[in-house]
From TrEMBL:
PROSITE patterns recorded: HTH_GNTR
Family statement: In the C-terminal section; belongs to the class-I pyridoxal-phosphate-dependent aminotransferase family.
Chain ranges of the HTH gntR-type domain: 8-76
Entry's Gene Ontology molecular function annotations: DNA binding; DNA-binding transcription factor activity; pyridoxal phosphate binding
Species this protein is from: Tahibacter aquaticus
Alphabetized SUPFAM superfamilies for the sequence: PLP-dependent transferases (SSF53383), Winged helix' DNA-binding domain (SSF46785)
InterPro entries: Aminotransferase_I/II_large, HTH_trans_reg/aminotransferase, PyrdxlP-dep_Trfase, PyrdxlP-dep_Trfase_major, PyrdxlP-dep_Trfase_small, Tscrpt_reg_HTH_GntR, WH-like_DNA-bd_sf, WH_DNA-bd_sf
Keyword match Transcription: yes
Listed name of the protein: GntR family transcriptional regulator
UniProt KW keywords: DNA-binding, Pyridoxal phosphate, Transcription, Transcription regulation
Length: 461
């Protein structure tokens, strides 16, 4: 008997058996595969098991049923190399596509996340199973406009640890930090409105602002932080609608604002009558006592945005906005009109994770591990002769002067299987830059050493 390979279930075994033969072209495109009963006899499974395997493969587009004639292998066109993508210039679309194409295999100093091995997948799995045991109703229930109320109450208590006074009605849940910022832009920014960002600033926000049609102006960095005199002058001249900023773990520099800078930024926002989006998605990777704009402002002009995909899992996309109660109702209206509600099963899972105490222990261990890794990475960069801007003390980023055009270096890194985030992508001007964002958790392996050698060669050339 032709036996099935090892698999986690009989259905999976049937799928693996047939897929292997399709891949080897035992059953080429257009060929009829064994009937359900024939497959069941061959693999010693029930016809119901074989039928479910065929249904799954049909849903995946691998085979198709023909009425009265059985199942046939779908014809699949040979993939056509995307030469345009391969030769494209290094821009935001290039970086995002490289990240998504690489999937789990992505590696390199340009990544914006912690290694998957650092995250607590066991806790997430146990939590999702616990929700499943509560009955199908929990999985089938729809959400509400502002999101799962018990989670919003927990978030309000957690914000208090940052010195931010908020209650549940001031919080709107979102599907991650990107969705949170997008809601604010959809609500408050019209095409042509001026929005200020730091230069450098997170490329994702720059992309959203471009799609919104905003007039984006960069506020330069001075030694160790944003140039606040320049911010005042630019705000006076342009009368912006918004300022988008990180107060801690600034992306890409990894730096944090001090208390004096926080106070000055809030004062400038009040003087020139604009709102501030405080993107604090990396909050749990640093000291909770670091000064926040929202704490100083009391959520009057500051709209605080947070999330948990960086510390839990990229697929558990739960973020939130904390703001004045009037703005929260407005953002909830925008959320419902543009995307209905957010998935409550994710919100329930996060609520359980935050409530049982395990998450607190998890992020404490992450911070300790990250501090150690950051010190190692900064020493490595120093030994290799690359200057780090501002010596970050928190989070997972450093802003590194590679002494060459990092767009060109990014292309060379890609040839070695490494993803880089060149400095040009973090500026509203998109001008070529010697800097790149460096993830301090990057493994110091042979590929990285080759990259450093390539940077020195480019600098020499």
């Amino acid at each position: 008997m032709d036996t099935a390979p090892h698999a986690s279930s009989r259905v999976d075994a049937c799928i693996e058996w047939l897929r292997a033969r399709i891949d080897r072209r035992v059953f080429p495109g257009g060929a009829r595969v064994p009937s359900i009963r024939a497959l069941a006899r061959t693999l010693a499974v029930s016809p119901f098991t074989a039928a479910e395997a065929y249904e799954r493969m049909a849903a995946a587009g691998l085979i198709a049923a023909r009425r009265g004639a059985g199942y046939y292998v779908c014809e699949v066109a040979a993939p056509v190399p995307n030469l345009a993508r391969a030769s494209a210039q290094v821009d935001l679309k290039w970086l995002m596509q490289q990240m998504l194409d690489s999937g789990r295999a992505a590696s390199g100093p340009g990544l914006g996340v912690l290694p998957a091995a650092w995250l607590d997948g066991d806790a997430l799995g146990a939590t999702l199973r616990a929700i499943g045991r509560e009955g199908p109703g929990r999985l089938l229930e729809g959400g509400t406009a502002q999101g799962y109320a018990p989670l919003r109450e927990v978030l309000a208590r957690r914000l208090a640890a940052f010195g931010i006074a908020a209650h549940a009605e001031q919080i709107v849940l979102t599907t991650g930090i990107t969705h949170a910022i997008h809601l604010v832009l959809q609500t408050l920014v019209m095409p042509g409105d001026t929005v200020l960002v730091l230069d450098p600033s997170w490329f994702g926000a720059l992309g959203m602002l471009a799609l919104r049609g905003a007039r984006v102006i960069g506020v330069p960095y001075a030694a160790g932080g944003p140039d606040l005199a320049a911010l005042d002058a630019i705000a006076r001249e342009t009368r912006p609608r918004l300022l988008l900023i990180n107060s801690v773990v600034q992306n890409p520099t990894g730096l944090a604002l001090d208390a004096a800078a926080v106070a000055r930024i809030v004062q400038i926002a009040a003087r020139y009558d604009f709102h501030v989006i405080e993107d604090d998605v990396y909050a749990d990777l640093c000291d909770p006592l670091l000064p926040r704009l929202a704490a100083y402002d009391g959520l009057q002009r500051v709209i605080y945005a947070g999330g948990y995909s960086k510390t839990l899992a990229a697929n558990l996309r739960v973020g939130y906005l904390a703001c004045s109660e009037n703005l929260a109702r407005t953002f909830a209206d925008t959320k419902v009109l543009t995307g209905y509600t957010t998935p409550e099963v994710n919100e329930r899972a996060l609520h359980k994770l935050l409530a049982n105490g395990r998450y607190g222990r998890h992020v404490a261990a992450l911070r300790e591990r990250l501090d150690l890794q950051r010190r190692k990475a900064l020493r490595l960069l120093e030994r290799e002769g690359f200057a780090v801007y501002g010596r970050p003390a928190h989070g997972l980023f450093a802003w590194v002067d590679m002494a060459c055009d990092t767009n060109e270096l990014a292309l060379r890194g890609r040839e070695r299987g490494l993803l880089l985030a060149p400095g040009s992508l973090f500026s509203p001007t998109q001008r070529a830059s010697r800097f790149m964002r460096y993830n301090v958790t990057t493994a110091a392996d042979a590929a990285l050493r080759e990259l450093f050698a390539a940077a020195r060669q480019l600098a020499h050339d």
